[in-house]
Structure formats: structure tokens, C-alpha cells
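Repro case for the chain-ordering regression, as requested:
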Amino acid sequence: MAPWRSLLARAIHKNRSLTYSRYFQLATVRADGRPANRTVVFRGFLGDKDQLKIITDSRSEKANQIQHQAWGEACWYFPKTREQFRLVGQLNLIGAAHPNAGLKDARQTTWQDLSDAARLQFAWPHPGNARTDDQEAFSPPPPDPQHPLPNFCLLLLTVVQVDHLELRGEPQNRSLYYQDSSNDWIQQGVNP
Amino acid sequence: MAPWRSLLARAIHKNRSLTYSRYFQLATVRADGRPANRTVVFRGFLGDKDQLKIITDSRSEKANQIQHQAWGEACWYFPKTREQFRLVGQLNLIGAAHPNAGLKDARQTTWQDLSDAARLQFAWPHPGNARTDDQEAFSPPPPDPQHPLPNFCLLLLTVVQVDHLELRGEPQNRSLYYQDSSNDWIQQGVNP
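-- result from build under test --
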């Protein structure tokens, strides 16, 4: 397992009393070359792989942005332990028509694991469009917990580089993690 | 004053008991077209303008990235009030040689307002380089509070669009703010 995985797991554990410590910010690039940035919810790792699970709606802007530029950078700050992980990787959108059976299964499992409230949002009107006046459009029948709605996507961030900064310490500690040509992870201490 | 300014000021005020509610994530684009993302500290607004003040080191990667792509997006999540501001704007790096006298003054004032510890970091070894073994390099003489070190930069984000999401509410509330052709701010409610 990648050496940063245990550090990240430790940070998640130590900050678990704060609900929002499971939120991080995901940067992507728009079709016009400008950056975009939004808060997303961490949905766990995919098995023991170096992949972070996120969910998104195929109607959202980020789903469209990823078609143009698959690279993303997650920035995850943990308030209690005062540390930051910057995770560079490629984004992979797993929709209803994805050809890989294993990834389609992962999409299905992720849907099943969601709360009713989280699933319901995928039945809401088109995100980002002018506000729908009809209040009932936001109270649709609950979607089937066994069958993902077609616009539900699992989004995977396959991490290739990590920049870990610990604000505690005199001076602060900062380490880079990246893979060598044999795909082994290298750790290098750098100046904060 | 832009209508989102008062909402943002209210969020800052209501979350003031959390030190880290003054941190936000700033996305930029690297020279190779991939996104970058890191946590920065909000240093206030520049006067009554729609500009957010950040500080950075001219030796940092983001200073270099801004030369290639001046657009940035800040993502600012407030845990107590459960709301997010996404602020799209242009980034302007104000270094020692900046031609505008007013902005150079703002750089000087920002330096003076920093804590001793914050100023000291600008006298540390080159950020991102292999870790300097010499521990004394991280204990330099305190810089002069009246005269910014040459690598100290004020970084301004001039906001042109805001996406405000309030998680509280059934359903959530989301508003876009942007400027019309007369530079007047328009508010539009959109689906979350």
C-alpha cells in the first residue's frame, strides 16, 4: 500500500468527530482553460487501491470538465491535526454505460451505501439551471436503493502524487510522495 | 458594494470562533494545463473593492502558475453555517517591483499587519526544494516589520462571479452572482 495511504487514514480517523473533515476541495479545469473548485464528500477508497471515491451527477459542470481535462487536484485540510494533503491524480467518471464490469459494480455498491437524502438529490431538477419554482420537484419519490439513477456517477481520483504538509512542528514538516519508473512510491522531505 | 460581499462578511463573522474558517482553497492551473489546489489564508478585502487579499512567496509554484494563467477559483466552506462560496476571479501578484504605487502600499501594509511568525516564513529556505538539513536556516533573524522581504507578494483575487450554496434548507439554496455589461451585479437563484 502507498505510504501516504496510512497517513491519510490516520488523519481521517483523528478528525472523525468533525463531520466536515470528510469534505475536501476538488480542482478541475474548465473547457476555457480556467480552473474550477468545489467541495466534495469523500466516499472511501476503492478497495486497497490508491483511488479515492467521490460521487457526482452527470448533469454537473465537473462531469463535463473532466471530459476535456481528466487531471484533478484534491486539497484536503484536517482542522484537528492541522495537516493538509494535496492529491494529484486522474479522474475517471463511472456512469451507467461504463464498459468495465468491476467498476460498474463499484458504482452500484456506492449507490446502495448512500443515505436516502443523498440518493434523492439525483432525482432533483437539473443542477445549475434557473431555480425550479415547483417545490414538489424537490420532493420526488425516493429512488430505488438497488438501482442507481442513470445520471448517478461514481468519480474516481487515481492518485499519482501527494504533498503532505503538517503545520504542527517547528518548522513545519512537508513531504512529497511520487512514483518512480517501477511504480514504487518515493518519499522526499521538502521545505515547507 | 457587491451583494455577495455582505453574505461573505456575515459567514466570516458567524464562523469566527473557528480559526480555520479563515482558510480557503485556491485553484490555479499549472503550465502543463493540469489544475493545482492548496489552502491559503484570507487576509481581508482590499478596501471596499471586490478583491480578496492573500499572501504568497514569489518562489512558490502558485506565483509561477499565475504568470501562465491568471484565473483562479477560491472554494470557501464555512463549517458552522454550512455554506460554500465559490469565487471566480483574476489573480494579480503584487511584488516588490510592482508599478502601481497604491498596490505597493497595500503590499507594505499587509506585511506590517502579519504576525512575526508569518513574516519569518519568508526568510526560510526555498519552499518545495529538498529539505534543508541545517535547522538554523529555519531560525533566521526576524525580518524588519517595516520593510517586506523581496520575495513577499500580496496576491489579489478580483472576483467576477460567485456561486453561493447553503446546505441548510429543504432543498438547499444556491445563488449565482455575476456582472452585467454595465458591471452591475446580478443575482440568480439556481438549482442546487
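Ordering looks correct now. Residues 3-92+153-189 of chain A form a domain with the Pnp Oxidase; Chain A fold (CATH 2.30.110.10).
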